[in-house]
Amino acid sequence: MRIQTTLSRKLVLMSLLAVFCGCAEVHSSVKGDAMAEQVKGGVLREIKVAETGEGARIVLSADRPLAYTFYKTADPPKAVIDLARTEPGAIASPMEVNSDTIRRIETVRYGEGATAMTRVEVYLTRDTEVNAAIDASDKGMLALAVARPAVAGAPAAAEAAPVAAQAREALPVPR
């Protein structure tokens, strides 16, 4: 009798285990579609260049929020933006700009599928300050502000003007 009880308990436990394991989904998520959207990469839609009073403004626009890495090199002077999980789309490369701040912009794709990355290289006319920031209202837009390169004689002239003014103040006034 004792053997039958032990055997029946084992059968009941195995049946319950089979029922619970059979009902569980493998790799399921409550937000299945949202997770798939995050894994899918974006596409770079366009690159716009506009001259401003302080230099130039470059706007990179994508169909999804951008994750980026930005750095600048001095030789050759260029700004490099790596866009994670982003395809270059139909952007023409190289894009010749030939302004007083920017020579050209090139886009290159690295990797495949979920590891795809787009590198945007902005070749500058001279080594100058460049800042990058995501647009607060549209996370799919990255703006680069390129400062106008200083003219070789301009800083010296700007420093000379206050010195000349101080020198005039120090001179005695003829009577």
How does this structure look, described?
With 175 residues, the protein is of the alpha+beta class. Helix content is 27%, strand content 38%. It has three helices and ten strands. A five-stranded mixed β-sheet has the order 5-1-2-10-9, with no helix packed on it. A hairpin with a 2-residue loop joins strand 1 (42-52) and strand 2. Residues 27-32, 34-38 and 155-175 have low confidence and may be disordered.
Overview features:
175 residues, alpha+beta, five-stranded mixed β-sheet, five-stranded antiparallel β-sheet, 3 helices
**Into which percent range does the helicity of residues fall?**
25-40%
Rg on CA atoms, Å: 31 Å
Mean pLDDT: 77
Overall 3D form: rod-shaped
Largest sheet: 5 strands, mixed
Put simply, the count of helices is: 3
